[in-house]
């Protein structure tokens, strides 16, 4: 099970790699459970400030759910399928969406079904020019179940999302960029270096500021503007009494680069 997702850490960046290349990195139940466990551990790891999530091999980030495994749950009835498959997948995408450290998905190949939904849930995503995306669940006679009917319309707009949800046709990385599903399309060889460079650009800043921005955006995006502004105010109140804000202000006034500790403190990782 430990080989289903590999972990490498360097320079405060943890790289998680979905590691079932022979199955196009399909999201088996065991892989999802292991990825969730790693996310739990990394969120509390003060030496890690950002995560990159990618797939093993050159063919796929993830081709989606493990259909053979999922079909066995369906055969046991709707309650079992919802518990074992739907709830597990939604737990994963919700965890990624609400994670308190930035997660950058580096899409190195196919991102179909659940792989596309993980990309939708992540706060940041970049893709190889070789990457392709699809919402193919309709070809199985079902809707997406890991959040794809909810997040893609919020990213792309209702009509553009429904075109892909209702046809199931693959679409290019450039189309994913147009839809707001990813931030950038890159030559394949530049994908992981670019993900690390993006992470390093973020990690120049206060860990607490990073955490509060992620929280304010994630919590506020589906609220009214008035409710969202309250979330924003709450997140500023977390920062106001801290050494990070004092250092940022002092550095700006002195025209110098701020010197943050770099460690992801307990304060930065607490609360949503």
Q: How does this model look, in words?
A:
It is globular, with a radius of gyration of 19 Å. The strands form two sheets. The chain has a six-stranded mixed β-sheet with strand order 1-2-3-5-7-10, with helices on both faces. Strands 4-6-8-9 form a four-stranded mixed β-sheet. With 272 residues, it is of the alpha/beta class. The chain has helices at 29-43, 67-75, 78-97, 114-121, 148-156, 158-167, 173-179, 191-203, 207-220, 225-239, 243-254, 266-269, and strands spanning 5-10, 13-18, 50-55, 60-62, 103-107, 110-112, 124-128, 132-134, 171-172, 184-186. The chain has twelve helices and ten strands. The relative contact order is 0.12. The protein starts with a strand and ends with a helix.
Entry summary:
Helix content is 50%, strand content 15%. It contains 12 helices and 10 strands.
Distance between the termini: 30 Å
Instruction: Give the amount of beta strand, in percent.
Output: 15-25%
User: What is the typical, i.e. mean, pLDDT?
Assistant: 95
User: Largest beta sheet, briefly?
Assistant: 6 strands, mixed
Helix content: 40-55%
Radius of gyration, whole Å: 19 Å
Arrangement of strands in the largest sheet: 1-2-3-5-7-10
Shape: globular
SSE order, one letter for each helix or strand: EEHEEHHEEHEEHHEHEHHHHH
Class by alpha and beta content: alpha/beta
* Strand segment tally: 10
Low-confidence stretches: none
Query: What's the total helix number?
Result: 12
